[in-house]
Design goal:
The structure is a homodimer of 337-residue chains. With 337 residues, the first copy, chain A, is an alpha+beta fold. The first copy, chain A, has 2 domains: 116 residues, PurM-like, N-terminal domain (60s Ribosomal Protein L30, Chain: A, 2-Layer Sandwich); 155 residues, PurM-like C-terminal domain (Phosphoribosyl-aminoimidazole Synthetase, Chain A, domain 2, Alpha-Beta Complex). Chain A has 9 helices and 16 strands. In chain A, β4, α3 and β5 form a beta-alpha-beta unit. The C terminus of chain A is likely disordered.
Chain lengths: 337, 337
């Protein structure tokens, strides 16, 4: 079974959802509209009136041996990552986190002290990003640790959530930060544990020059860019052309390349867990308003969308000689941390 | 490590939560206030203005071997229970479910077809209770199935959420339905899988004669009633006196008693997974307005709260001779389904 096949099957039921669902499953977050009702406890008015608040919501899991190696990671960092992974989804919508709940299934022999370290990591990370933990559930069993965190978010006034479905032909493809090697520790920093979700950056970007589509890079550019291409609405099939020479390769990716013997660009495309933003943007808008850095983070134009010819794949990699290569098989489903 | 010790430690941090948290962890659901902002995308007003919508949220897990036996249960029923367990928390607040998200960590060899059966159970149960699934996360690993579901809810106009903390001395203690034997299959019905969360009943009850405190019975009366006693605000310590003869013992509990050789009342107090409502109510209000049935479900007065003397426990069981017995050690933490 592939996660993607099951997800496709699930999204196939989206058309059955009721009208209060303002964003169905399939984006970085879903959303549902809450009616605004009269506050007075004595009132029995129905409160219809059309008003409402869109609540964005997303859930993400952190499983020992899949998304993190609990034995080899400080527990406070495990807790932090359970929160920041979700906040990266909030960033991908250019939204504002409001609150979170966490569920943990702990090995029976985990121990009170280690559990407190873990939940302290969760709580501190949640508080640091103004996303307080307002509830949770704890169970114990004879299997590895599994955390799941659900985050609630709202749109900032004036900034509608950026979906992953709005990309169009001729849009530029851009990423924040640098890609690849996220599992490599370098100068005491390990990206997949220590990254900062791009919350403020995403909202600045959306206010300055609104992307047509945005997603966070959790499974790697080679997996996540085809998702943006597949989600693009309309009748025109698209291909994403990525210039290998333009990829912002991280220092950790060059270290990973030294160790693996594979080229650094391959790590940048396939490693996953970058938690950077991938977005598409109208080229005229980009030319006028897209800066080279936002909040000190580089913004890199890595390619362009165009109409797909015949059976062209969703993504091709263009080498320095101008030769295009299909980027199939670089998709990445979590097999181990 | 005990779940309860870890939870106490977590609740100890509640005072650090920011003001938008309208219900901190420790109740059946938490709540957070979402500001109502101007809808127009062009507006950049801050939208303060004091308006807001309280979003209630709770998360619950369903672990194979702990809360359900996946090999011995139709997968659609497993999915259903993952939803209805959470909806029982919504009922305990007398709130209205709005939407849910589900995370599943599946054994790697689970298979697409079985996964679809499972998620169909989730989806159908969610839809049946007007609580559409708006998001999810799927992972795979080499360990048993773990589902976690987060449900979002709202207060019905005129019915503020009923907390578990409002009980006072002299309040009557009441339960809905019948208790005990929830794992026993009888006439093709197995309560822990097939129960109906008391959503409408709870709101009818709250509108008719508002309880002072309410909780859903997930861990059994012997564990959940002491929680209501402990949560009661104020300086007066309370004891809950439960009349054994008054307990509404289910038919399944009498079958369980025949098999176990223990009295049926013990099953009603200690079995867990009743998913009925336990509530306390002002005795004068109860006398005037509390019916014997709501929507065909019996409402039973099982005892009374009074000031605790000296080192009296949170809960005592009163036998037919009028003799009170401490109800310690009947608390129930999930060990197996």
């Amino acid at each position: 079974m592939k996660e993607s096949a099951l997800l496709s099957w699930i999204y196939g039921h989206n058309r059955e959802l009721p009208p209060q669902v303002s964003l169905p499953p399939g984006d970085d977050m879903g959303a549902v509209r809450f009616p605004v009702v009269a506050d007075a406890a004595a009132s029995s008015a129905s409160g219809g009136g059309g008003g409402g608040v869109d609540v964005l919501v997303a859930v993400d899991q952190l499983a020992d041996g899949v998304h993190v190696d609990v034995a080899g990671t400080p527990l406070s960092q495990v807790g932090r990552k359970a929160i920041t992974r979700n906040l990266s989804d909030v960033a991908a919508m250019a939204a504002v986190p409001v609150a979170a709940v966490a569920a943990g299934c702990l090995p029976r022999d985990f121990g009170q002290e280690r559990a407190e370290q873990l939940f302290d990591g969760l709580r501190r990370a949640a508080a640091a990003f103004d996303c307080p933990l307002v509830g949770g559930d704890i169970s114990m069993w004879d299997h590895p640790l599994l955390l799941s965190v659900t985050v609630l978010a709202r749109a900032e006034a004036g900034i509608a959530p950026v979906r992953r479905s709005g990309a169009a032909a001729d849009d530029l493809i851009c990423v924040t930060g640098r890609l690849g090697g996220s599992l490599i520790e370098l100068h005491g920093y390990t990206h997949h544990l220590d990254f900062e979700p791009r919350l403020h950056l995403a909202r600045r970007l959306a206010a300055m020059c609104r992307p047509t589509a945005m997603i966070d890079l959790s499974d790697g550019l080679g997996a996540d860019l085809p998702r943006v291409v597949a989600a693009a609405a309309g009748d025109v099939r698209l291909t994403a052309e990525v210039e290998l020479a333009a990829l912002p390769v991280s220092e950790a990716a060059t270290v990973a390349a030294d160790r693996s013997g594979r080229p650094a660009w391959e790590h940048a495309v396939a490693d996953g867990e970058d938690y950077e933003l991938l977005f598409t943007i109208d080229p005229t808008l980009a030319e006028r308003h897209l800066p080279s850095h936002i909040e000190g983070v580089p913004i890199t134009r890595i390619g362009r969308l165009r109409r797909a010819g015949g059976d062209e794949p969703a993504m091709v990699l263009v080498d320095e000689a101008g030769q295009a290569h299909p980027a199939l098989d670089l998709g990445w489903e979590h097999q181990g941390p």
